[in-house]
Write a structure and sequence with these properties.
With 427 residues, the chain is an alpha/beta fold. The protein has two domains: 113 residues, Immunoglobulins (Immunoglobulin-like, Sandwich); 252 residues, 3-Layer(aba) Sandwich (Rossmann fold), CATH 3.40.50.1820. It is built from seven helices and 20 strands. An eight-stranded mixed β-sheet has the order 11-12-14-13-17-18-19-20, with helices on both faces. Helix 4 links the parallel strand 17 and strand 18. The chain is globular and about 70 Å long.
Length: 427
Amino acid sequence: MAMLGGARAEAQLTLRLTSVPASTPAGAPIYVAGSFNRWNPADSAYRLTRGASGEYALTLPESVRGPVEFKFTLGGWERGELSATGGGVSNRRFTVPESGPATYSGVVEAWQDPAKLPPKVHTASPSVSVIREDFAIPQLGRTRRVWVYLPPGYATSRERYPVLYMHDGQNVFDAFYGFAGEWGVDESLDSLRARGDRGVIVVAVDNGESHRLDEYSPWKNARYGGGEGDAYLDFLVHTLKPYVDGQYRTRPGRLDTGIAGSSMGGLISLYAILKYPEVFGRAGVFSPALWFAPEVYAYARHAAPPLPGTRIYFVTGGREGDTPEVYSGDQRRMIDTLVLAGYRAGVQVDSAIRADGMHSEWFWRREFPAAYQWLFAERSPGAVRRAEPARPRRAPARPALVCGALRSPAPARPASTSPHRGAPCAG
């Protein structure tokens, strides 16, 4: 339970822990890690001070304003906070007012015990393999692990398949690499294939750990970084896609090429289909972090009219943190924006807000099959493809303003309370 109250006049946001577990070691330091300190679980500048009453408190820097997310730790993600029953807890979320003081008060019910962490196991299906552990990204001067899922029967057929590109590859197929579970994309597609789906190739690119925020943000933000989103997309379009089309039996056209991701991955997926409509004809946008990139609305409003057959699917949960109205409200605003830009609701853009949905892998795993089936409806037996008239195109007008987009880490599972999506994050 958190509440907003008064604080010292010179303060900006004060975090208070009114109660911690009795098992907390005497003198053990308690830290806060969040979007304001690059999720460092042992940042000495973000250590809480214990008062005479037994409460812990920390006043954040004056520069910390707007929406923030955070968790408390004993100095590492293996010693992060848990629920009273030993389960994972969602990231704490709070919107700091633009001026004046505020206080967040809460309790920690339990700490994770590293000795009780269950061993991680590999869960990827036989349909999944790694293309390269060190696939070169010349646009950024980095390398990255890249995964590929091939539909069952690929090796014994001559069929060509559409391709879906996904971000945060650590969390797409294999729970061994994901911090809070995985999407189970391979299991979902294997199951659909067994029921008659014609199949799709999935290529998943690992996030860049400390570079994740930079790579998934199309605009620079003075507070949080970012600004490498265009280079990252150029890698997907000009380096990775040509490689995949050359090595695998793909259907390379735009209507057979999709892109999908969640949170910051949802933001960059939306940006990708708006910037490269001639490359990507499908986009799955899960719980997008639109609230940290407001200029994306202007970009969407002034983008070229949608090409025939374009499909964008949005889904957001009704319980995404302490302020779920931020996510659901931003999604509704983006749908309205796209409709004004010429997208046909229910035909070229569709959306859902699931009342029980949360900002986590289990939610995106559950929602993936429905999103995939709507996006690639033509691949399903008996599906009716809606013909759409061609529209005249105009060049996209990128706003001069810049902004950044902060990733919204998913809530933790009992095995790990890290907010990282497979690796340390940048925000």
